[in-house]
Amino acid sequence: MTKGGGSHPRKGGKGRDAASGRPAGKRPSPGKSQPKSQPKRTPRPSPAPSPEPPAPPAERFVLGAIPGATPGKWIDLWNERMPHTALELIPLAVPDQRRALLEGEVDAALVRLPLDRADLHVIALYDEVPVVVTAADSALTVADELDLADLEGEIVIVPGDDVLGLEVPGAVAPSFAPPADTAEAIATVAAGVGAVIVPMSLARLHRRKDADYRPLRDGPISSVALAWVADRTTPEVEAFVGIVRGRTSNSSR
Questions:
Q1: Is the Cβ–Cβ distance between 141 and 132 less than 8 Å?
Q2: CA 80 → CA 140, 176, 248, distances in Å?
Q3: Which of 109, 119, 218, 226 could, after both became Cys, cross-link 64 (CB 3.0–4.6 A)?
C-alpha cells in the first residue's frame, strides 16, 4: 500500500488508455482505412469482322445432256431466276457422260444410268419405259403393247450407242454390221428390216412417219439422273438442283 491509499500498477505491467480502452501507448495509425473493393470492368467485345461480300454470279453454267433428255422447262426457269448467268446446253454421248463431268467439260449433266458414282453426286429424276420401234406397217404394231416373247424369230438390231444392253430370247441377229447409232438403226427398221428396242425418249427424238413404236412391258427400265462432281458444288449447281427438284425461287436449300 502507498501513502494516500492509491494503488499503482506493478512494475513492468501494461496499462490501458482510459478513453479508448486500447493498450497504453498504442494509437491508431493515421490515414489507414480498409481498402474499398473496385467494381469489375466488363471487357468490351472485339468488333465482329466485316462479312465477306458475296461472290458475283458466274457468267455461264454448262449443262450436258444425253440424247433424249428434255431439260427445256428447267432451262426456262433458269433464265427467269438466273438472268446474270447464261446456261449453255451441250449434247453428251452416253459413253462420254462421266468423262465430261470429271474433266470439267460441263458443270452438271443429265445422264443415263447406270453410271459409276465415285466422286459424283447423282440425283435420279425419272424412269423411261422401253419401246420396240418397227416399220409403220409391221405386224408388230397391231398390238398396243408387246412382250419379249412377241419378238421371238424377229430380227432385233442393236445400235452402236445402245443403252439398254438387252438380249432378246429367240431373236435373230442381223446379217449386217450393227448401225453406228440409234438414228441409223431406226432408219433401217423404217425401211422394213427388223426392230430396235430403245427408251421411249429416243424413239420420240428420232420419230419418223414411216416408223412406229410400241411399249415393251417386260423390258428394262432406263433411268435419267442429274449428276455433278461432288467437290465442285458451286452456287450455280445448287441453283439448278433446286430447279429440277421443284423448289420455288424463295425456297431454302
A1: no
A2: 45, 49, 11
A3: 109
From residue 203, how far is each of 72, 114, 128, 184, 217 by CA, in Å? 18, 20, 11, 12, 16
Bond from prior residue into 114 cis (ω within 30 degrees of 0): yes
State the burial class of residue 140 (Cβ atoms within 10 Å of its Cβ: 0-12, 13-18, 19+): middle
- The answer to whether the beta carbons of residues 66 and 94 sit under 8 Å apart is yes
pLDDT of 200 above 60: yes
Q: Which of 60, 71, 65 is nearest to 109 (CA)?
A: 65
| pLDDT tens, residue by residue, 206-231 | 999 999 999 999 999 999 999 999 99
Q: Which residue has the cell 438390231?
A: 157
Whether the full predicted model's pTM is greater than 0.70, yes or no, is yes
